[in-house]
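Q: How would the structure tokens look for this protein?
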Amino acid sequence: MTFRETLTIHLQALQGRDLATLMGTVSPDSLTLITASGRVIRTAAEFARIHQAWFSSMSWTMDVSLVTAMDAHSLGVATLLLDYRDDPDDGPPVRRKSLLTLVFALRDGGWELVLDQNTPIKETPDEDEEGGSGE
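A: Here is the predicted structure in token form.
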């Protein structure tokens, strides 16, 4: 299976709330997840637990658009634009956009997710970022 095919399966599993298929694309022993809030997860078991809890809610949808993707001999990287919407019965509607960067490594003939980093997109840019001097 190619990197692009694995990426497609991974994204379809996310959107379809399919934990078993999702975990089939995740490295069982070398994984880093950085959530939109900055929390760092380093185990596949914790990754699965978080996604199982998220998938249990049926009130959210998420559109995914490819920003860029590239792969070399043993590494594939994709950056995606996520448009997440949630309309829970017990709270106000939520809409968030973020950039998701996924890194897959080729191991034993298959591609495994090794890094998942979600970066929120702010509604209004910081003054430092606007002026270009915030580095």
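The first helix runs from residue 3 to 15.

The CA atoms of residues 126 and 134 lie 9 Å apart.

Upvote if useful.
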